[in-house]
Amino acid sequence: MISSFASLGGVIRMNPYVGIEIDGDHMVLLADTPEGLLKHSVPTGKECELAHLQREVELFVQRLPYSPKGIGMGMPGLVVGHDRVELSHVVPALNGVTAGQFATAANLPVAFINDVKAATLAEAAHHTDRDTVAVVMIDTFIASGVVVKGNLLLGAKGWSGEFGYMVMSVDGEPKPLDLLASGYAITNQAGVDSATIRQLLEQNDAAALDTVHKAGTYLGYSLANLIHLYNPDVLVIGGSTPTYKGYMDAAMSALEAQALPELRKCCSIEAPRVQSHSMAYGAREWIQKLASAT
Question: Is residue 198 in some structural domain?
Fold first, then answer.
């Protein structure tokens, strides 16, 4: 659904929905205007209060030169349906929050979606010629999403894609992938922060290289599992952790060694097409899909 605004140069076609993404550091709000994309960012964090987020959404909507048709919000954590956050470790203020609490004074329709599922929708919009699009995001932790023939796979409660909780065996003990292959796993095992890890990698520090290689290898094993489960014809891998030197080399080596050749051959591995705020763009896609279905 696209709105049109008259201008001296003709008609400007715009998306009439607001897109919002929330993570552990910032809330980003974006919307089209006749002058271009309006974007606003505010800090969040574990101590962030719900009233602060609500106020910023209200002020952003008031700044728009039109009344938007609705708000799509990419939320960190477990989202029930499209209107409630069951659990968010990243921003505890969101625990139990409902979509109606962000409706603003204009009483706008609001739809929630898990943040990585939102990113999946944003990426799938660039692969409409593909049957099955899988997206894996590796930042502090790991999550995934899958779109099949344009439809997002949700699961019974909408909680599919908790990829970081995939259980792997390490020395006979079960461990979740988040503790083996994520950004958190790397910095925790190395005992230093991300910036220091990157410095050590550039210096070819043996211990840092080994830590990142092991993490990448575990990711590669998990990607083989994902390909075997969903048979995607494109797998998008994004986030900050894959940019560690040697991480994706190790992941691809493990993937090639473990994946069934027939399934691997039909699956291209690609970087994200949406370079920033994919969760906000995807959340906007989500509320448009819901609106068009009613």
Answer: yes
Task: Name residue 111's beta-bridge partners.
Answer: 72
Integer Cα distance of 73 and 116 in angstroms: 11
Q: What pLDDT score was predicted for residue 12?
A: 52
Q: Are residues 167 and 263 in the same domain?
A: yes
Instruction: Please check whether residue 244 lies inside any domain of the structure.
Output: yes
In a domain, 124, yes or no: no
Structural domain of residue 107, as residue ranges? 3-118+276-292
- Cα torsion angle, 48, 166, 262, 154, sign: negative
CB 212, CB 197: distance < 8 Å: yes
Task: Specify whether 34 is located in the same domain as 74.
Answer: yes
pTM of the model: 0.89
Tens of pLDDT along 173-223? 999 999 999 999 999 999 999 999 999 999 999 999 999 999 999 999 999
Residue 199 domain flag: yes
Say what the pLDDT of residue 5 is.
Answer: 40
Quick: pLDDT tens for 78-99.
Answer: 999 999 999 998 899 999 999 9
Tokens representing 226 are: 């994902």
Pair 249, 168 in one domain: yes
Pairing mode, if any, of strands 17-22 and 70-75? parallel
